[in-house]
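Entry:
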Amino acid sequence: MFFVGISMLLVVGSIVCFSLFFFCNAGSVYKICAWMQLASSVCMVMGCMIYPDGWDSEEVKRMCGQRTDKYTLGNCTVRWAYILAIISILDALILSFLAFVLGNRQDKLLPEDFQVESKDHA
């Protein structure tokens, strides 16, 4: 639950970062959002991997039968919420990749007056 909550906070934070378009370079904003989306997907992966570890609790055994154990559901099935969580992992990975690509393209579109010089040219 902790990692899924952190993941959702990162997603909301990346939406709030859209306000940075008023203050920062678009390429920088895309890269900030990309890193936040990538961290969100990592947290969601951890949450989805840890979630089945709790299936051996007494409450789950009472509902799903005594054959229930860690990573074994017994008489129960995986429903839509867990599948949507896995889809959200793929979505966050695709969005972070897209944001990195857009950020790099935006940096190349800047006029030379606004580009940051590398240390090799100084």
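The radius of gyration is 21 Å.
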